[in-house]
Write the structure tokens for this entry.
Amino acid sequence: MDILVIHLFNALLYASVLFLIAGGLSLIYGVMRIVNLAHGNLYAFGAYVTAWVVGQALAGAHPVILYLLLPAGAFAAALLGAILEPTLLRPFYRRAEEYQLLVTFGLLMILEDLMRFFWGPYPLTATSLFEKMGSLKIGESVYPRYNLLVISIGVLAAGFLWAFVYKTRFGVVLRATSQDMRRASAMGVNVNRVYIQAFTIGCFMAGLGGAIVVPGQSAVLGMGVDALVLAFVVVVVGGLGSLEGALVGALIVGIVREFGVSVFPEVELAVLYLIAVVVLLVRPAGLFGRTA
Amino acid sequence: MLDVQGIDTWRGPAQILRRVSLNVGSREAVCLVGRNGAGKTTTIDSIIGLLPVRSGKIGFQGREIGDLPPHQRARMGIGYAPEDAGLFTDLTVSENFQVCRWMAEASKRTDQVSEAETDNRIHAVFPEVLQFRQRRGLFLSGGEKKMVAIARAMALSPAVLLLDEPFEGLAPVVVTRFIEAVKKIKEMGISMLIAESNLANAVRVADRLYAIDRGEIIYQGGPRQVFENEDVMKTIRG
């Protein structure tokens, strides 16, 4: 029984991080209709910044300060997003989709090299936060308390995001712009401002995903690409552009992957892609997506 | 109020408008009539800024607005109700209104009416809207959508309204209802430019009339006098 609970926690842990990454990707696509291939490395950037701040720059500081600094990576990724959107992406909105894919793919590469340039090729860790929280006894087994914190952050982020999109003034304007940006602009909405805000929030979510995983695992080069591939599985299953879809997709991928690792480890990733293929065949827009 | 001077507008490689000039005065309802494809929607889109003009000038309240993005033109007080209503169908009717209301507030215009007065005006023109304020745009009939589109444009507290084919697709009895609504809006001191393909409807609401064909203005004058111009009548009616 306790093993089952641990598997469930692991699935939720995985789903929480995946939701943050895929939710950001989906939000950006939903509003701006851009598939941001650089999104994975914004997640990695968040992980590197938090690992560097917590694990190196301020490693000797009081643990409370270090926990408070955990979202540093998220804020850094948001700042980077706020710079990238108007400077690098905006000129390509009127171009064909291929240009946007090329630009964001190029950005993925550039960010990877920048992280290598600043932090070198070796993994960065911030394990002190993970270790300080200790473990929880579940039956005969133990489970890291830090993982429960990550799950809580994922749940809170989903709740905040839902409230933000559906219960705030900005959320209403965001949904209007997402549905028809030309008409929104004719109603007085400054679409450029909405775009930069949506992109910044999307990057914040990716950065937060990276920031909260880094005490539990190292920040390494290539982690962004791995995360991006799984985030795409999530959005394919849930529906690109849908936050509800990102949440359900992340839960499905989290559960299937966790139980796949235990039950059918050899084909765990293949099963995930198979699910994505089946969804694409049966419901091409994803579970919560809309057909054009 | 609104002064369009010699605009040329293109859609892709095709020139749609050729030296189009028209003006709308204060508290005036002006109709732009023409057959489908004559250039009515393109004229409206050019004025609100959804299509760039290649040459000519667009003035609003004495200020040149031809280079301004659409959101700035809207915030200056140009309301717009598109031909297909263009509602944000995922949003409730109330949220559709709020978007425009918030944008009016953001504009900090001194000539805008209060939120309460805006609501009163909307309900005076379309009392039906009260019944479906909490309904999502997706679940409205064609006529209701058109109603909400005009009411939403009023939520911007506009000085001038651009109505693109407001009576199209409506049953004759509903058209009469809309014509009454348009007259009420005019009584509230809001100017209007109405693109309309049905001359009979246009004549019922217009103070002045422009006729457009193949992107060129072929007539301007009183709504009744157009019937005396055989060439124009032939062109409009096909």
Q: What stands out?
A: Residues 2-221 of chain A form one domain. Residues 15 and 254 of chain A are 5 Å apart (CA to CA). The two ends of chain A are 45 Å apart (CA to CA). Chain A has a mean pLDDT of 91.
